[in-house]
Amino acid sequence: MHKKTSSLFFLTMSMLILLIFVASYLHITNGVFDMSVMDVIKTLLRIESNSKFDLVIFEFRLPRIVIAGLVGIGLGMAGVVLQGITRNGLADPGILGINAGAGAAVVIFMFFFQLKLVSADMSSWMSILMMPLFGFIGGTIAAILIFSFALKNGHLDMQRLILTGIAINSGFGALSLFLSLKMSAQDFESAAIWMAGSIYNANWIFALTMLPWLLILGLYVHRKSYLLDYFQLEEDSITSLGIAVEKEKMKLLLASVGLVSACVSVSGSIGFIGLMAPHIAKQLVGIQHRYVMPVSALIGAGLLILADFIGKTVFAPSELAVGIVVSIIGIPYFLYLLVKSKA
Question: Which UniProt keywords are given for this protein, alphabetically ordered (predicted)?
Fold first, then answer.
């Protein structure tokens, strides 16, 4: 049985990597400025140097693909952790308000430090490095508030968790909107685009900034993913195995908040990836979290790259924010899961 599961896992991972490659190929070759696959290969391998192709690939399209992939990986893994900790298949960083908390903190940073996300000279290392840190603080505050109100007799009440998450989400969303309205016209436009969930202005500095967060926290949650299997049992059974339940849950929660915050700091608030990716992963490879975690990460990456490609091309030359595209897909899926959970 174990051998069969491992074979299925590796087959699924191979197929997902292939799908990500196809989505990336579509993304990099299509747009306002179309290129053939040979143009892309020659540019990437430096066979024939062309300044136009260099600009389009290395400055515009490739950073977007990389950022979309990294954000999808982070949100997919965070969704697995949150659903495992809460034992609730509807848990998601966006629905629970963690996205909104991290986003509000980044908007506060933008408001006081006047970070112009669309300006050419925005790449101040100190400013960009501070954004994930502010996001982490905001996401942590949101998580503490949510889980404090959701506790009932020392245990998480799932109904309270969802309702509190919706309330916290609305509250932090209102705070973000209020602060953005106080900004200058240029900063407000930047903040509004960012809050909708957008990676159209992605660059290599953003990718390098969030990469350490994903590597360190991603490896940590993957290494601890076996605990999520135990968390599905009754608490007395877990304690009898010698596991410090609350301590481990808190560590995993903080790690997932860090992942979400790093993602939100570069892409704005993108919901539903953390909801959809774990469910699809479980349908593909079963319920063992050591398999679900990496599969969910790749599904998140593939979904976001594909969503960004759709947002870029469907209404060309105008663009639709990737967060809106994901919501169009995610809302029906959320309603489907809601109906299914009642059945």
Answer: Cell membrane, Membrane, Transmembrane, Transmembrane helix, Transport
